[in-house]
Structure formats: structure tokens, C-alpha cells
Design a protein that fits this description.
The chain is α+β, with helices and mostly antiparallel strands and about 700 residues long. The chain contains 24 helices and eleven strands. Helix 20 (about 590-600) packs antiparallel against helix 21 (about 605-620).
Length: about 700
């Protein structure tokens, strides 16, 4: 029999587990297994480990407290016990008793160290220390003494300063950190949870991509992309209509207001290049010379539309170059300047930054200059006593004579929204402080004026019905000298008990009680309306669904001008006959604005209901511009087919419903700071009482 190899005295003896079974008793031997060989007490091992134990104690005396000493010395103590009493089934009780005798319970530790288990199936304390004393990867770099360095993990109930304790003088050596099983399990659970979330997100993405797209949507996208106009090889907009059966007139041009729903659809689809190009090229057109009969309007005026033309070069007539030909109103019917073009441009600029995150476009010097030119044109001083913009008939979406001259709601709502957009985008510096102050003052005054004087519901109509006229005082109730006889007969029975709306126009001795959809919807989107008023507008639309939606959403205004009123106000316009075109026609392009307002107010079911009605007809009717009759049953008698903003409005509405969080690119929340300050500085005047508190009460009550 070979002699047993000499073992390292520092490495404790342990049984080696093998696959062989324990010796079985034989008939000739005793029924009990033979006892193990007696284990002798080694004095040399005892002396060596006592020295190691005291050496470890001295090393940490200066750097740690009693807890640190206990944590540092405990492995050596357990190793000493394991060497003095090797693992043997017959000596387990003896080892445990010796451990308790030599190393009693620590007074600083509330928990007694667990009993030393020397059973083969458990991991002993000696095995933990053997891992610490195992040779390093680089024997030359790390000495045996350094391999004795230990580290302790977090101790429950103890200050974090004791989470890691190192042997003094061995800080250069990376200590061994014994990972806890609980920490490993926690990390595994976190990793597993993350993988499950990733799988679920991928599944949701696949479901979204795999959503069945209706044939109407497929056709709409195809038509929208066919309407794209390119300039020098880059997309710059979409034409107004692509009806092959009608004369082009100006429907082959890119209108600023018409392109907004197209731009929104492209942005929501992730196609941003066309929108960026449109914003920059129209900005260049702003600086072009604008002259009508030897008179030039303000420099900040944006064109109503532009067209890409090919002109021959001077050198060779065979070669041509492309140029942009803008129309500032000098070619429009009635020669009216487009007041709303600049406002739509600012709104679209903010939406572009919100969706793409590309705010560098807003920060460009030429873009900042363009915003300021538009605002200077809108904020210029005049003879008007009101904060609303004074415009002529036909200066917005209703671009024909329809009796909206003065202070139409549509312009005021877009003006308010453009001011709020500009306040976000204008760079704050010494040169812009006065402009920002003017914006804040105008926003405060405009919000109060519209909320106080344009809003009507059953209660307000009853007040107007009892108005006294010819009041001459600063405390007059009937400030605009409105005659009660102006209340139309249809209004008394039409306005529901619940709900209300903003009237179409307000001037001295005149209130236009017609309901204009675009102005009311943008009052909701921009928070020009108070939350209570916004709810009232949607309540009225829901209550009067048959009148305002009917067979095709949405009425541009209600009701239509008829009979003598139509002849006087429209001048007997053959295109604006009753319940047609701007005079009570139904315009599908208003869908995306209605959807934005419904999403903001938490009522998307109304928008979904309207889109379902439109989707069932638009494709079959070849995407007309507008519908006629009181309920929108007929295609407009002069309506263009394949109208681009009808197509884009439908697509934008569908995309907004699928991603309601994206409606925030257009909407604003109530800003109470606008109601805190006084814009007119009359709070200290003995003659006039500031009315900002009344405006604030609309929001808070």
C-alpha cells in the first residue's frame, strides 16, 4: 500500500465524495460498519492557527471596531476548529462543543453563529475559507499573505460602513467578495422580468404592425403620396386636389392651411423630410416682395399658397429651372390677404419639434426671425379697443364673403394658439424680452375677452334677452350695446340645457350667434376655453349630433344663411348657397381637429363614432372636398374630388386615435400664470377695475 501523500497543514482534511457506495456488511463480519480511524490531536497545527488568529486580530485592531474584528477573525476561528477536530461523523458533537467553548457568543452580535455542520452534504465554514486561501491567478504578483485577505458582505442591521472590511495593508489587492445566494436570485428575477417585458413589448409591436389596415386607409395613403409636390428633387408639400375631371385653377398649388393635416399625417407616420422642407421654403417666401396695386402689406405676411414652376434659362431655352411662385392674395378671389397662413405655420413648426425632437430647426436665426415678423404683424398697434384681431371677410378657411369680417372666432382661436406656440419657441434674450412681455399681455387679455364675451349657453342667452341698452357708464353690463332683438328664433329652441359654445363674431351692437366648428374646436385644443366651457362644447355637439354631424362630419358652420339674409350677407354667392360650401356645408377635413379636441377632453368615443361615419362613405364618394344639404347626404355640387386635405384629415384622425398620446403635439393645458398678472396695469387705477380675477374664476369655479 502506497504511503499517503503529505498534505499542506493549512488545508484541512475532508472526505472526498465518490460514486462508490459505502462498504456493505458481509455475512462473516459484524452487521455494523467498521469505525473510522482515530483522529489524533496535532499540537503543531494548533500552534500555527493560534498564531494566525492573533495575527489577524492585531491587523484589524486599528481599522475596525468590534464588529469588524468579529467579521474578520470568524473565518480563521472556524478554520482552526476544523483543523483541531477534522470532519468525522463520530466527532461532530465534539467539534460543535469545542467551537462553543473556544469561541463563545459575541456580545455585539444578537444572533449566535450557526452551529458548525461538518456533514458532507452541507458547505462547511472550512470550505468557505479554502476558497479564500486558494492560489491566485498570478502567483508572482500576489503573495501567500495577500491571499489571506478577506471581505465581508453586507451585515443586516449594521451601518453600511461595515459592508466591506479589508485586512490593513492589503488595499491594493482586490478582495474576494462572497456573493449571497439571495442577491443572485433577486438579479435572476429582475432579469427574467425584463425579458418577459421585452417579449410582451415585441408582441404589442407586432400586433400594431399586423393590424388590419382597411382598404380605405390603403387608398388614402396612395392618394396622399401621389399628391406630393417636389422642388429640385425634394418633397415640399401636397397639392390641394388631384381631380382629373376638373380644371386645375389654383387647386394644383400647395396651400399652407391645406398642408397642415397632410404634414400631421406624415409626421405621425415618421416621414419628416417633407414637413421640414415645407417649413423652410415657405419661410423663404415670407421675405419676397408683396405688392397689390402698388401697395405692399407687412413684411411678416406668409403666402396663402405657392406653385412650383419651370421657367427657361436665359442662355438656352431648351434648359429650364424650377422656381417657387407664391400667392399672397394678389391672385386670390377677392384679393384678400391670408391672415391665418402665418398662424398655421407657427402651429406646424411647434408640432414638428414635438414629434421629431428636432428643436434645432426652431433655434435657427432665420426661423426665429420669421416667427418675430409674424408676431410683429399681429401685435402691431392700431385703433382697435379689443385684444382680438380685426380682419376682413374671407381671410381664413372661409375665404369668401360670409359675414365674418370683424373679429371672427376662427382667427382669434388660431391667434391664441400661435401666441402660445411662439412663447415656447422664441429664444429668451435681451432682444426678445419685450416681445415675450407683449405675448403674455395679449394672451391674458385675449383669453379673458373670449371667455367672457363670446361664450353663450342657456343662462347667458337669458341674460342677453333681458339686457338694457344705451348704457353709458364704466359699470355697464351690456358693454357692446347688444339689442335683445338680435337673438335669432332658431337659437332659443336649439341650445340645450347642458352645454354651450363660442359665438362666431362680436362687434359693437352685433353678435353672430352661428356655431363655427373650427373656432370652437381650436378653443378646446389651445385651452382658450376653460375646462368647463370645453366640456360644454362637446356636450352640445353630442346633443346636436344630427345637426352638426349627420351623415358626414362636420358642419363648418350652423345654421346656413337663407333667403334675404343670404342675399344681403353673401351677395347672392352662387357657390355659398344655403347648406353648401362655406354656408352650412359638411367638411370631412375637420375630422382631425375634432379628434384632437375629443382626445384632449377624454372623450375619444365621439371621434371614433364620427370617423366610422366618414370611413363608410369617403372612399366610395372619391374623397370630395365638402358635402351639401342640412345632413350632408349629397356630395357638394361644386366639390372637387380627391381633395388632399380630406384624405389627410381622415388619415390623421385614424393615427391620433391609435396613438392618443400624440395629440399633445397640438394641445395645450390651462396656464393659470396668464390669469395672475394684469396686462393693462389698471389694477391701481381708481377709474377702472381689472377683470383678471373674473377670468380666473371661470377656471377655478
Amino acid at each position: 500500500m502506497e504511503m499517503e501523500k503529505e498534505r499542506d497543514p493549512l488545508v484541512p482534511h475532508r472526505h472526498v465524495r465518490t460514486d462508490k457506495p459505502y462498504p456493505q456488511p458481509t455475512p462473516r463480519s459484524s452487521p455494523f460498519p467498521p469505525p473510522p480511524a482515530p483522529q489524533h490531536f496535532h499540537v503543531s497545527r494548533f500552534i500555527a492557527f493560534v498564531v494566525i488568529w492573533f495575527w489577524s486580530l492585531v491587523c484589524v485592531m486599528n481599522a475596525t471596531g468590534s464588529m469588524g474584528i468579529a467579521v474578520t477573525v470568524r473565518p480563521c476561528c472556524r478554520l482552526l476548529v476544523a483543523q483541531l477536530f477534522p470532519e468525522c461523523p463520530c466527532h461532530q458533537r465534539r467539534a460543535a462543543a469545542a467551537a462553543a467553548f473556544f469561541f463563545p457568543r459575541c456580545p455585539h452580535d444578537r444572533r449566535r453563529a450557526p452551529a458548525l455542520s461538518l456533514a458532507p452534504q452541507r458547505r462547511s465554514a472550512a470550505s468557505l475559507v479554502r476558497a479564500a486561501l486558494a492560489p491566485a491567478r498570478d502567483e508572482a504578483a500576489v503573495s501567500d499573505a495577500r491571499r489571506l485577505s478577506t471581505a465581508a458582505g453586507p451585515v443586516p442591521g449594521v451601518d453600511r460602513a461595515f459592508e466591506r472590511i479589508f485586512v490593513q495593508g492589503l488595499a491594493a489587492v482586490e478582495p474576494l467578495v462572497i456573493e449571497r445566494v439571495a442577491e443572485k436570485e433577486r438579479m435572476l428575477v429582475v432579469e427574467e422580468k425584463r425579458k418577459v417585458e421585452e417579449v410582451e413589448e415585441e408582441q404589442r409591436t407586432e400586433v400594431t404592425k399586423a393590424r388590419e389596415v382597411s382598404e380605405s386607409e390603403k387608398e388614402a395613403w396612395r392618394l396622399l403620396k401621389n399628391a406630393v409636390v417636389e422642388y429640385c428633387g425634394s418633397p415640399v408639400g401636397t397639392v390641394a386636389a388631384t381631380d382629373p375631371a376638373a380644371e386645375a385653377l389654383n387647386y394644383d398649388q400647395v396651400f399652407i392651411r391645406d398642408f397642415v393635416p397632410s404634414a400631421l399625417a406624415f409626421l405621425l407616420k415618421g416621414e419628416t423630410e417633407i414637413v421640414r422642407n415645407f417649413l423652410l421654403y415657405t419661410l423663404q417666401l415670407q421675405s419676397w416682395e408683396k405688392t397689390v396695386d402698388c401697395y405692399s402689406p407687412g413684411q411678416g405676411l406668409m403666402p396663402a399658397s405657392f406653385k412650383v414652376r419651370s421657367v427657361p434659362l436665359d442662355v438656352s431655352k431648351d434648359e429650364v429651372e424650377e422656381m417657387l411662385d407664391p400667392d399672397f392674395g394678389e391672385s386670390a378671389i377677392g384679393r384678400v390677404a391670408p391672415v391665418d397662413s402665418g398662424l398655421w405655420w407657427i402651429i406646424l413648426l411647434r408640432a414638428y419639434g414635438k414629434i421629431t425632437g428636432d428643436y434645432t430647426l426652431q433655434e435657427r436665426v432665420d426661423v426665429q426671425t420669421g416667427i418675430k415678423l409674424i408676431l410683429n404683424l399681429c401685435l402691431s398697434d392700431g385703433f382697435d379697443m379689443f385684444p382680438t384681431l380685426l380682419v376682413t371677410d374671407g381671410s381664413c378657411m372661409i375665404d369668401r364673403r360670409m359675414g365674418i369680417h370683424g373679429h371672427p372666432l376662427e382667427i382669434q382661436a388660431l391667434f391664441y394658439c400661435a401666441l402660445r406656440c411662439s412663447r415656447e419657441m422664441i429664444a429668451v434674450n435681451d432682444g426678445s424680452k419685450s416681445l415675450l412681455r407683449a405675448i403674455n399681455n395679449r394672451l391674458s387679455a385675449l383669453s379673458f375677452h373670449i371667455r367672457e364675451y363670446y361664450w353663450v349657453d342657456m343662462k347667458k342667452i337669458n341674460e342677453i334677452y333681458r339686457y338694457k341698452t344705451e348704457e353709458y357708464s364704466q359699470d355697464a353690463i351690456n358693454k357692446f350695446n347688444i339689442y335683445p332683438e338680435q337673438i335669432p328664433g332658431w337659437l332659443v329652441d336649439w341650445v340645450p340645457e347642458k352645454g354651450g359654445y363660442f359665438i362666431g363674431n362680436l362687434q359693437p351692437a352685433h353678435m353672430d350667434f352661428r356655431f363655427f366648428s373650427l373656432g370652437n374646436l381650436w378653443a378646446i385644443v389651445s385651452s382658450l376655453a376653460t375646462p368647463r366651457q370645453a366640456e360644454g362644447i362637446l356636450d352640445l355637439i353630442e346633443e346636436k349630433w344630427d345637426d352638426l354631424v349627420g351623415n358626414m362630419p362636420l358642419k363648418i358652420c350652423y345654421p346656413a344663411l337663407e333667403y334675404e339674409e343670404w342675399r344681403i350677407i353673401t351677395g347672392s354667392d352662387p357657390k355659398n348657397t344655403p347648406w353648401s360650401y362655406h354656408n352650412g356645408g359638411s367638411w370631412p377635413t375637420l375630422l382631425w381637429q375634432f379628434t384632437s379636441a375629443c382626445i384632449k377632453m377624454g372623450r375619444p368615443e365621439l371621434a371614433r363614432k364620427a370617423i366610422t361615419i366618414a370611413e363608410n362613405r369617403l372612399s366610395n364618394d372619391k374623397w370630395p372636398e365638402y358635402y351639401d344639404t342640412p345632413t350632408g347626404r349629397f356630395i357638394g355640387k361644386q366639390s372637387r374630388l380627391y381633395q388632399t386635405w380630406t384624405i389627410a384629415g381622415f388619415l390623421a384622425s385614424k393615427l391620433l386615435l391609435e396613438n392618443p398620446e400624440m395629440a399633445s403635439i397640438l394641445t395645450f393645458e390651462e396656464d393659470l400664470e396668464l390669469l395672475e398678472g394684469c396686462a393693462c396695469n389698471l389694477i391701481k387705477s381708481p377709474r377702472t377695475q381689472c377683470s383678471r380675477r373674473a377670468a380666473k374664476s371661470h377656471v377655478l369655479h
